[in-house]
From TrEMBL:
The keyword ATP-binding does not apply. This is Transcriptional regulator, TetR family. Gene3D superfamilies: Tetracycline Repressor, domain 2 (1.10.357.10). One of its GO terms (molecular function) is DNA-binding transcription factor activity.
Length: 268
């Protein structure tokens, strides 16, 4: 009978241990679930952190905004170079991106269409240069020789400082079918042209300018004397007799021809 009681006690002890282990397991499961639930709630409540730049910005390296402006300027420069070299119609946005060293996606990020690109070029590059050509007529309203001389000098300086200007102007502005000519006419009209013609006609009536001059040909003549030689410079740069001719020489030649003609200089 003692053996039976010992066996009963052992069985009860084993059953109790099993109940303790089962209870502990349930407790651990509940605790683990609570921890996982809390972690899930925290992850849901907290927004995902934005990816950080792994490499710290090096000293002298432009910030994101500065890099964006530089990239945009490079695209504009590449567009002007290609437009001057091969024309606007024959240049795609993808070609401009490759010329600047970027992907087409980068080009599309800044300029969705060629028309948008043209408008930006007119506003930021071509427009200011064009506006500067009208300054001499304002500063020398009563001195046509000074006005035309300064205009010729500005044309040459603009062509030297902006190598794309001569070829682009000849290809896209002087030409009747040029897209840039059409776009600029839509934007600016012909107000400046009318003002210049009116000034020339007034100077002729006042006896300040040669009456035999044709006002409508004055600007074209200036272009032919200043911008055209620079636009065709690649054709004669290797000529030993003309390779030394630069912007200063072209401006001086144009001014001398305009103010003194082809006759010898008259004695004072």
């Amino acid at each position: 009978m003692g053996k039976k009681m010992s066996g009963g006690k052992a069985g009860a002890s084993s059953a109790g241990a099993a109940r303790v282990r089962k209870s502990a397991t349930r407790g651990a499961g509940v605790a683990g679930g609570a921890v996982r639930g809390a972690a899930a709630k925290a992850a849901t409540a907290a927004p995902a952190a934005a990816p950080q730049d792994v490499a710290a910005r090096r000293p002298g390296r432009p910030s994101g905004a500065a890099r964006g402006a530089q990239q945009r300027d490079r695209l504009l420069d590449a567009a002007l170079e290609l437009f001057a070299r091969q024309g606007i119609v024959d240049t795609t946005l993808g070609e401009i991106a490759r010329e600047a060293g970027f992907t087409p996606a980068m080009m599309h990020y800044y300029f969705k269409t060629r028309e948008q690109l043209l408008d930006v070029l007119i506003d930021e590059r071509i427009g200011p240069l064009r506006a500067g050509l009208g300054v001499p007529f304002q500063e020398h309203a009563d001195d046509p020789v000074a006005a035309i001389t300064q205009l010729a000098q500005r044309m040459v300086r603009g062509a030297v400082e902006h190598p794309w200007f001569p070829s682009l102007w000849v290809r896209e502005v002087i030409s009747d079918s040029g897209l840039l000519r059409q776009r600029m006419h839509e934007r600016f009209g012909d107000t400046n042209q009318k003002m210049s013609l009116a000034a020339i006609e007034r100077w002729q009536k006042e006896g300040l300018l040669n009456a035999a001059l044709e006002p409508s040909l004055m600007f074209v003549t200036l272009l032919g004397l200043t911008v055209l030689p620079l636009a065709t410079s690649k054709l004669w740069r290797n000529d030993p007799k003309r390779r030394q001719v630069g912007g200063d020489e072209i401006a001086r030649h144009a001014v001398a021809l305009l103010t003194q003609g082809i006759g010898p200089k008259k004695a004072q």
